[in-house]
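STRUCTURE:
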């Protein structure tokens, strides 16, 4: 898995078994990450009380025509020319 967090979006490269729907995987990622972030930062919990933490949309595609390494390299390269307020999780 590779993750790159930018100011207005996140790139995530995930491997999932075919029996899991993409929408359920995204729902779990957004739900669990929202809970963890709000537990770790109580001031965010107050600001988003009763509202959605993440936006309702997402983009998903498969990696059939290119290699996994190419996708991970693309994600790693995202935001390299941006300010230091962008961080990376690997």
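SEQUENCE:
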């Amino acid at each position: 898995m590779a993750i790159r967090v930018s100011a207005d979006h996140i790139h995530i490269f995930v491997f999932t078994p075919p029996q899991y729907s993409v929408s359920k995987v995204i729902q779990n990622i957004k739900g669990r990450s929202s809970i963890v972030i709000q537990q770790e930062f109580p001031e965010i919990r107050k600001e988003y009380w009763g509202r959605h933490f993440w936006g309702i949309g997402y983009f998903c595609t498969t990696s059939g025509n290119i290699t996994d390494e190419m996708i991970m390299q693309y994600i790693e390269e995202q935001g390299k020319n941006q300010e230091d307020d962008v961080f990376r999780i690997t």
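REMARK: The CA atoms of residues 3 and 82 lie 16 Å apart.
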